[in-house]
Batch of 4 targets.
Target 1
Amino acid sequence: MTEDTAVRPIVAMTGITIRFPGVLALDGVDFSLRPGEVHALMGENGAGKSTLIKALTGVYSIDGGSIEVDGEPRSFSTTADAQAAGISTVYQEVNLLPNLSVGENVMLGHEPRRAGRIDWRGVHAEAAEHLSNLGVTIDTRSLLSSHSIALQQLVAISRAMVTDSKVLVLDEPTSSLDRSEVEQLFGVVRDLRDRGVAIIFVSHFLDQVYEISDRITVLRNGKLVGTSAAADLPRGELVSQMLGRVVDEFENISRAADRQVDRTGTPVVSATGLGRRGVLEPADLDVFDGEVVGIAGLLGSGRTELVRLLYGADHADSGRVAVRGSTVRVATPRHAIEHRIAFSSEDRRAEGIIGDLTVAENIVLGIQARRGWLRKVGGSEKETIVSEYMAALGVRPADPSMLVKNLSGGNQQKVLLARWLATAPQLIILDEPTRGIDVGAKADIQRKVTELAADGLAVVFISSELEEVVRLAQRIVVMRDRRKIGELDAHDSSVDDVVAAIAAEAREAVA
Amino acid sequence: MTKIFKHRLVLPIAALVALILVNTISRPSFVSITVRDGQLYGSVIDILRNSAPLMLVALGMTIVIATRGIDLSVGALMAVSGAVALTIIDGSGSPDSPATLGIAIAAGVTVTLIFGAWNGFLVSVLGIQPIIATLVLMLAGRGIALLITGGFITTVTSTPYKFMSQGYLLGLPFAFYVSVVAIVLVALIQRRTALGVLTESVGINPEASRLAGVRSRGIVWGAYAVSGLLAGFAGILYSSNIMAADANAAGQYIELDAILAVVLGGTSLMGGKFSIAGTVIGVFTIQTLKSTITFLGVPPAVSPLFMAMVVVIVVLVQSQRVRNGASKLWATVSSRKEAEVAR
C-alpha cells in the first residue's frame, strides 16, 4: 500500500481482534482515519464492518490490538468513553428521542444551565445555531417525530457536532433517503470534511460510495482486505474484494452447473412481476424440478427481498405466484408452506432457530406447525424423524435434547435444514445458509444441496460467496439496486462474469 | 447428584420447604392434621382449600406469560363471574336446585371466557401491548360487575353453591379437587398435545415461529381466553366462599399474586419456557406465606411489607445475575482457601 503517511491519522486502529463465542469476528484488522477525509468501510454481512465500528465507539471491548485517537492510546469500555474522545455515531435507525423537540434532541445532555436549572431559551438558541451550521433552518421547538428521516439524521449529526466531535461515523445513513435527501446529506458531509472532521461512511450503494469517499477500506470474514484511494480502485475490483476468491476447499463437490436440468415442463414455482414499492422492482423467477437457481448480488440488491416476497414473509404489492402452473395466493408463510415451499432465513438467530427449545423440538417444529397443535409429533415418531435427519445432515453433537442455542452456527443451520426437509418440500429457499459457519459444515451443506437437487428438489440458493453460487447453481439470477438485472446460464459462466454483471455501471443496465 | 440441584424446580421447592419448616418450628401444630367426622382439618388443609382461586388464576397466567404476555384483568373477571352467577341464583325461585347452579356457573364462566377472548383479540389481532390491553378490563370489569348486581353486594343462600368452597368430599375440601382437576387438565392439554411447545416457541421467538408456519395469532388468542375462563371459575369459588358477590373485594390484587406465583415457579416474564409444576409450587408458597403472616402475629397493617420482603429475597435467589455473582464470590473465597492450604 502506497499511502501518504505525512498526515497524522486522527484514529489509528492496529491489529484489532475481537472474539465472540465460536467466532473470530475481527482478526488483526488495521484501520486508520485521517482528519478531513470521508472513508468508506465496505464488506458483506459478517465481514466485520459493524464490529469494527463498535470497537471504535466503545460498544465492544477489544481482545487484541490497540486504538490510538489523536496520537494517544485509548481503551474504550463504554460508549461514553468514545464520545468523550470525540467519536460520534449516527446509526441507520436514528437513535434519537422522537417524542422530544428538535432542540431538546440536539442539546440532550449538554443543556445550558442557569442557576442550576435548564435554560430552555438557551437550549433552543444554541440548537438553532448548530443546525444552521449544517444549513438546516427548522423550528427547534417542533416535535422530532414530525420531521422526515432525512431531517432527523441531520439533527443526529448536529447533535454530534455539539460535543465537538472529531470523528463522525455514519452507519448506512442513506438507506431510507430519496435522491434529493441524499444530496442534502452529502452537502453536509462535504462541508464537515472541509472543516477537518473525519467521517467513516458505511453504505451498500456503490454509486454513493464513489461519489462521496476519498478512501475505501474493504473487510471480509473479519479480515482486512485492503485500503485504497477511491480513485485508484475500479468498481469491479471493489466488488471482487468484497465477495472474495475463496481458495477452493471444495474441489470434491463437483461443479453442479454441468448437470442437465429439464426445463421443458411447468416450473415448480413461477413468480411473475413480483414486487413491492420501495423494496423490490417487479421481478420474474421460475424454478424447475431438480434445479438449483442461484441468486447473486450484493447485500441490499433485492436478493433477500425477492425470496421473502415469494415465501409470503413480506407482502408483495404486485405480481403473482403460480405453483405447478396454477396461480395461488401466498400472503403469509403458512400459505407458502401449504404449497410445500420452505424458506430458511439469512438471519439464523432472529428468524430461524427457537433458541431455548431443544434440537429435537426445533427439527419437528415445521411438521408440527403444519399439522396443528392437536396432533402432537411425539414418542417414537418424533424420535425416528429426529434421528433420521440428524444423521443425514451430520448434526454435531448428536444429542437431540441439547438446547439449539448452544450449537455452533453450522450445526444450527443443519438443524434448520432438517426442520424443512422433514416437511418434504417441493421448493426450498436457502438464504445465506453458509454464512458465518465453519468450513466443514459449509462443505456438508453444499454437498447436501447438490444431492437434494439431484433427487429432484427445486432449490433457490442465495449466497454472498459467488464461488459457491457458481458451483452449486445451474442458473444464476443477478440482482442489483433492488432490481433483477438478468440471468446467466451457470454452464458457461465464471465468477468473473457474475462480478462483471453485478458491477456494471447503472447506466449500462438501463441502456 | 449435581443434575438434581440444577433442575429448575429445586429453588422453588426449597423455598416452599423452608417456609414450611419456619412455620413448623414456630408452631409445631402447623403440620398436624386432625380428623373430625371423617374430614381432615388443619393449617395445611386450609392452605390446600384457600389456594384454589389463586391456583386457577395462576394456571391461566402461566400460559399467558409463556406467550410474552400478561393478564391484569383476572381479578376483575373474578368479580364479574361471581356477580353473574349470584344474580342468576338470586333471581331464581329454586336456589338449591342443581339446574340453577349449573346455569349460574355456566353463565358466569361464559361471560369471562368472552372477556378473555376480547383481551386476546386486542393483543393478537390488534397488536396492543398486553399490559395495556388487559388494563382495560382490569378497570372496567369491576364496573361491569357492579352494573350486574345493581350496585349492591348480592348475597344468597344456596346449599350446593356453598358446598363448592366449603364442602368436603372423601375427607378433603371440595375446592382442592377443583384445583387438582384444573392442574391436570391444563397440564394434559399443554403437554399431551403440541400446544405447550408451540406456545413456548411463540414466546421464545415470535418471528422465527411465524416463518416456521406456527399459527401464533391463534395460540396467543387462546391463551387469554383460557386465562379468562379460569378466572371465571376462580370467581365462582370466591363468591361461594363468602356467599356474596362483592364487586370490589373479589379477586382484589390476585393478578399480582398470580404473576408472583408464576415467577416463583421459575417461568420467566420474558416468555417462552413455562412450568405448570413450578406454578403449583409457587401458589402453595404464596398461600403458606399468607398463613404464616397471620399466625406469626404480623399486624395486618405491615403484612404487605413482610410479604414484599420475602418476595424480594426469593426473587434475588432466583436471579441469574445474583447467582453468577455469588458463585464468582464463592470461587474466589474457595481458591483463597486452597491457596492457604497449599501454603
Target 2
Amino acid sequence: MTESLVNIKRYTLVRNTVIVWVTGVLLAGFLLDIPKISILEHTARNLYFHVPMWFTLMAAVFVSAYHSFKVLKSGDLLSDIRALQAARVGAFFGVLGLVTGIVWSKFTWYVGTDVWWNFDPRQSMVTLQLLIYGAYFVLRSALDDPLKRGRIAAVYNLFAATTTPFLLYVIPRQMQSLHPGAEGNPAFSEITHPIMRLVFYPAIIGFIGIFWVIYTQRVRTAFLKYRVTQDPEL
Amino acid sequence: MSTNPINILQDAQAQDQAAEINATAYDSLWAGGDIPIQELSRMEQIMLSNDKLYVVLAVVLIIWVGIVLLLLRNDRRLKEVERSVAERIPDMDDEL
C-alpha cells in the first residue's frame, strides 16, 4: 500500500543525492572566492541561501496547485494530502526567506538606521502571499469531512497559487526595490559574477531537493495518520 | 549620535575600548586584553583567515549534519511505523 504511495527506492536515492549535493553547495558557497563589492562584502554569499528560499516556495506552489487540480478532477484524497503538505512545507520556506531577507537587509542596506522593515515592495507582497496561504490552512481546519474539505480547499488553493506569480514577481518589478529586476535596479543577470552563478543555480536545485525530502516524509506521515484515524489532516 | 554609518562604527569602537577598561575577569579573554597569548596554531590561522568566514562555514556544516541526521532518523522511524501499521490494519480497498 505504501509502495504505491511513495516509491521508497527512488525516494532514498534522491534523498542521498540531495544530502551530498547540498553539502557540496555549502562548501562551494563559503570556499569559492567572490568579488568584493562595497556594502555587500561577504553578505553577497546570501545569494546562495536567501534567494533559493523563494525558488523553493515557487516550486512548492506549483506542486501544491498541481495536486489541488487533481483533487478537483478526481476527488482523490491522496492528492489532497500532497497539496496540503506541499503548501505547508512551501510556506515554511517562505517564512525562512522572509526572515533571512530581514536580517540581510538590516545589516547591509539599513546600517546606521533603526530600520528592520522598510516596506520593500517584494517583502510586503510576499508577506501578503504568506497570509493568503495562512488562510488556506485556517480554511482547512474549519472543515471536518475529509472529502468535502479536499474539494473546497482545492478551489481556494488554486486561487492562492494564481496570485503567487503576481505578488512575487510582477508587482515588485513595477516598483522601487532593493531587489534586482525592480525599477532603478539592474536585473540579476547583469550584476552577478559567473563564479556566483556556479553556486547559485545548484543551490536552487539543492534547496528544492530538501523541500522534496521533507514534503515526502510528511506525505508518508499524513497517509499513516489517515490509515489509523481515517483523517489525513496533518 | 550621527546617522553616518562610519561615525557609528567609530562610536562602537570607542565604546568597545571603554568597555575593555571595565572588563571583568570573565570576559577579559575575549575583550582582547591579552590575546594572542601564544602563536596562532595552524588551524586557528586557517579559521581566522578571510574575515573569519570559515568559522561560519563550520557552524553551518554542524547545523547541516544535524538536520541530515534528523531526516535520516525520521525515515527510519517512518519505515518502522509503516510496517507495523501495514501488519495491524489490513489493506483498505478504498479509492485513495
Target 3
Amino acid sequence: MIDEPRDVDCHTVIERLYEFLDGELDDDRAAQVRHHLERCAKCLGLSNFEASYIAFLEARARGQGAPPDLKRRILNQLLLGDDSANE
Amino acid sequence: MTENTRRSFEAEALPHLDAVYRVALRLAGDETQAEDLTQETMLKGYRAWPGYRQGTNARAWLLTILRNTFINEYRRDRRAGYTIDISAIEEFTVFRDVQDADPEGSFFSQLVDDDVTRAIDALPDEFRETLVLSDIEGLPYAEIARITDVPVGTVKSRLFRARQALQRELYTYAVDMGYIAKREARS
C-alpha cells in the first residue's frame, strides 16, 4: 500500500514551484507538489503558466551554436599543435 | 601535446563548442567578443587537458574556464547598457496580472528571439549567467553551483529572481507593443 503524500499548503508549493518544474525535487516532495496541484486550481494555473514560460525561454533564447568559421579556426589551431599561441 | 591528447580533446571537449559559444555570447553580449572568448576558452582547455580527469564532466569543466576567462579578462569591456533592477522583483506578479486575460501566457509567443536575448542581456551578471546555464543550456542546479562557485541555495534564489525579473521585463515589453492589453490598474 502506498502512502498518500503529506498535504502541503499553497505557500510551500509556490516556494518549491521552480524546483518542481526543473525536476530538482526528490520523489517525496515532488509527489506532495503534484498532489496539491491536483486539488488546487489556483496553484495549477500558476504552475501551467510558469511551465510554458520556461519552455518558451528554452525554445527562444537558445540561438545558434558556434559559427562554422570559428569551429574551423579552432580546429586548425589544435591541428597545428598551437605552441605558437603559448605566451 | 601528444597525438593522444589531441584526439581525446577532440572527442570529449570539442562537442561542447556550441554550448561554450552560446554561453559566451550571453556573457559577452556581442558576437566578436564571444568568438574571441570561445577561442581562448578552447585553447586554454586544450593546454590544460592533461590535467582533466577523463570521463568526469567536460562541459562543466570548459564552462568554468569560460566563466573565469570572462570575469578576469572581458567583463570590464562589456558595454554598459540598461540593466534590469533585480531588487524590485515581487513573486509571480505577471501571472496575477494576466491570469484572467491570458492564463496560458500566449503573449510570449508574439515575442521574437531578439526581444528575449535583449532582455536577458539586461540582467545583472550573476543572474544572467545562472539563467543562461539553466534555461539555455539546461544544466542541473548542482552543476551550475559548481561552475559559478556558489552554494546550490544561491543558484535557486538567483534563478528564481532572474526568471521573475525577465518575465516582468518581457511582459512590460509585450504590453508596450500592444501584444497584450494592460490590466486595469487597481485603485
Target 4
Amino acid sequence: MKKYRILIAKPGLDGHDRGAKVVAHALRDAGFEVIYTGLRQTPEQIVKTAIQEDVDLIGLSILSGAHLQLSKKVIELMKKEGIGNIPVFVGGIIPPDDVPKLLEIGVVRVFGPGTPLSKIVQEVREVLEGVASTSGS
Amino acid sequence: MDHKQIAKLITLIENEPDRSRDILKKLPKRICPVIGFTGSPGVGKSTLIDQVIARLRSIGKTVAVVAVDPSSPFSQGAFLGDRVRMKKHFLDEGVFIRSMASRGALGGLNESIYDVVELLESVGFDYVLIETVGVGQAEIEVRYVADIVVLVLSPGFGDEMQLLKAGVMEIADIYVVNKSDLEGNDSLYDQLVGFLTFAGRDVSSVVKTTALNGNGVEELVDKVITLWKSLAETERLKQMRKERLKHHTETLARRTLQRYLSTVDSQDPYESVELALKSMCERLKYGQGGGT
C-alpha cells in the first residue's frame, strides 16, 4: 500500500516553527506520514534527509525573508543529488511579489499567512496525486 | 549501495511487503550488532541515540538507525520527529537515519522491521540501532528483533512500583538512567540496582547517562560492545537469531492470514477464520502461491 511521506523542513536561521508544526499536524491528520527536521537546517541537511527518508514531497517553512535564496539552493542541490523530481512547496511570510519568483525557481505551491489548513491539505494531495499519475506509479 | 538506493528499497519493503523476499534474496546474508532502544515517551531515547552514534563514529563504525513513531489509529497519518535530535549526523556519509511509522503494529515497532533490519545488515553497516515508539509497559517486540535491548529510564516516571511490573522492565540487557543530572536520579538508580539484585541479575547492566552532554555514553557503548562480543562468542547469538526468525515468520503468517480474512464476509468470528484458511488453502492448491 502506497503511503505518502512528506518532509517538513526549516531552512535557514529563523527560530520560529509554530507554523511548520501546525502544518505538519494538519498533514498528519490528513493521513500523511510527516517527517520533521527541526529548526535551523542547511539546504544540504534537508536534501540528505529527503534522500534517506525517501519522501514524496518537501515543504519548506521560511519566515526569515531569505525564501528566494534558500528555496533556490535547496532545489539546485536536489537536482544535483538526483532528486529534482520531488515537488517542493513553500510556506511562511512571503511577499506577494515573490510568489511568481518562487514558482519560477521551481516551487510548486506557495502558502502565505492565513492560508486555511484545509486548502494546504487539498493542494498537497493534488500535487502528490498529480506526480503519481504522471510518473505512472 | 548508496543511501538513495537503500532508502528506495526500504520504501518498497514497507509499501509492497510481497517484494521483500526478492529484494533480500539478491543481497548477501550478513550479521552485525542490532541494538534496540526502548522506553517511555520523553525519556531521551533519540537524544541518547544521537550520542551513541557520535561515539560509534569516533571509533570508526558506520551506523544505520531506524526510528519508529506511532501512526494515528484514526487518520493513519504520523508525525515522525526522532530525527530532530540527530541533526549533527545528517551530513555524515557513515550514518543512515530512517524514520518509520508504526502503521498499526502494536509491539512498538513496524511489521516491516524484520526485513528492514535484514536489509541494513546486508548492505554493510557496522551497527544497526532501532528506536521503538515511546512505550508503556507491554510493547516488547524489540526483544525479538534486537540482539541487545537498552531500556532508557529517567527520573520522574513514578515510584518503585513501576520497576516491579512485568513486560518492558524484564526484556532489557542494559538499563540506562538518563537525565542523571536531574533530581531523583540517585533513588531511581538505587531502586533499579535493588530490583536487579532481587531478580538475580547483573547490576553492572545499569548505566547513568546525561544524553544532553554525553556523560556516561562511552560507558554505555563499551557495555554494548562487550555484551555483543560475549553473545557472538557463544551459542547465544545464534539462538537469538533463530528466535528472531521465528517471530518474523509469525508476523508474515499473521499478515498473510489477515489478507484472506479481509475478503471473508461472516458475522461469526470462528467461521471467518475457517473461511479465510479454506480460501488460502485452495489458492495454494492451485499453485498460485499464498503470497506473504
